[in-house]
Amino acid sequence: MGVLQAKPCLGLIQDMVQLLQSGGIKTVVNLVSADLGEVAQKSGLWALLAQFSAYPFNGADLFKELKTSTAILSIGIGSLDKLLDAYLYTGEVTGITGGPGSSKTQVCLWVAVNMAHGLQQNILYIDSSGSLTASHLLYLLQQAGALQRIQVVPAFDIFQMPKVLISSGTLKVVVVDSVPRECLTLTLQDLSMAVMVTSHLISDRDSRQLKPALKCSWSFVPSTRLFLDIGQGAGVSGCWHPVCLTTSPHLPTGFQETVNTGTHRVPEQSPALQGDHT
């Protein structure tokens, strides 16, 4: 192992190296294996210890913080439950990719209404593409009890989204419909919320096959990804859309279900929350 030198480390000047060597610490191995508190006391290098050592955390405190900032939220939509292990997790991003007409917005509305009504959670719905139409609003109005817990905010640029998130109060779920390339740096998962985003498909110039518009730059962001295909058989019974699980930390990928975007019944309020509702 190398000898301690001043140049490789900006905070380690030559005078400090000499003090350490006088205390018997001459190599990097000596330094990393020594008791830093004892070294600091002998050499008087408290500033080096304060500047470059990690702040100590108690494991019990970290576990307590994890319990208070983590929630597992039930979706309540049968076919999506099977693909998402029945839950959305705070701190994770769930991405829905699909082409035009694949009902991405309708699925997002289902999730928002279910969680607002069944779990009594506050929902922030960020509409970055103007896709929330009058018919979608009518669907929300029919669920009047849940509507008061859903904030629908238009945000058409990257500067509006952080402002909206900061000013929205206590939230557990954020839905972004849809997320543009410029918003990839927005780390929503750091806010201890369950995040659902939608993104579009584009046609490859050479093969003419559909592919995600955000490509590889977005592939590492969602913890769970769903591919929503264009549905078949619109009518009284609704429109059935194939949906495939392409990425998941909880379940094997490749599973496919169908989701009906035409008819959907909002589940009853969670029994555990019925007594707390005001």
Automatic annotation (TrEMBL):
Q: Which InterPro entries match?
A: HRR_RAD51_Paralog, P-loop_NTPase, RAD51D_N, RecA_ATP-bd
* Any one GO CC term of the record: microtubule organizing center
Where in or outside the cell it occurs: the entry states: Nucleus
Kindly give the SUPFAM superfamilies that the UniProt entry links to this protein.
P-loop containing nucleoside triphosphate hydrolases
**Keyword list, A-Z:** Nucleus
Q: Where is the RecA family profile domain?
A: 69-278
> Membrane spanning segments where?
none
Q: Which domain of life is it from?
A: Eukaryota
Under which name does UniProt file this protein? RecA family profile 1 domain-containing protein
Q: What is the lineage of its organism?
A: Eukaryota, Metazoa, Chordata, Craniata, Vertebrata
